[in-house]
Amino acid sequence: MNLLREVKTLVLKDLILEWRSKHAINSMFLYVISTVFVCYQAFKTVDDTLMWNALFWIILLFASINAISRSFVQESQYRQLYYYSITGPKAIILSKIIYNTILMVFLSVIAYLTYSVIFKNPVGDLLLYFVAVLLGSISFATVFTMVSGISSKTGNNSTIMAILAFPVIIPLLIVLIKLSNNALQGLDRGISMGEIAVLLAINVITVTISLLLFPYLWRD
Fold first, then answer.
1. The predicted structure's pLDDT at residue 29
2. With pLDDT > 70 as the criterion, what percentage of the chain qualifies?
3. Which sign, positive or negative, has the C-alpha torsion 133, 43, 122, 193?
4. How does DSSP classify residue 75?
5. Nearest to 207 by CA among 162, 131, 129, 149
6. Distance in angstroms between the alpha carbons of the first and the last residue of the chain
7. What is the pTM of this model?
């Protein structure tokens, strides 16, 4: 119960700080809008549904990297020392995962709405596609939060983060693209249960690894 209270307090702290500054939200919003606009200037229209889907996930992937890569870097050494004295590592990593999940869900909705307005929306099953976007947002948040926590202990944060995230993100993207393609074609939802189960399993495994690994990193 104490852990849940600490996680709630830390998440509220991050949300309040973000709401006061709004730097990250404004920069991510600008990034998504400008990226979609550049794609529109390059393609004008995307008639191929497979290209439409792939382009959307590429935009969302780089937006998530840009949003989550600074999760631990922005915390000063003195603030981390203060956290070390009042809470535990599990509360820290869980709060970061939850906060980044909220951030990614918001960013994904903005990206999807903007992308659908600028390019014609060919999705056959909107509910299944929304499930794919939601699971993708959660997956990006859990994976990149874990990797960001590891790479924050190194001097070359961006490079290490890219190297560590690559083996996990590639199979994750393959599953997400397959699931969203099923939604685009309007296939029976029962066909996509396997992909949904894989995504849920990846999230559970990633959170579990984070809870096991981060306490050792936190000691340093």
1. 79
2. 86
3. negative
4. S
5. 149
6. 26
7. 0.86
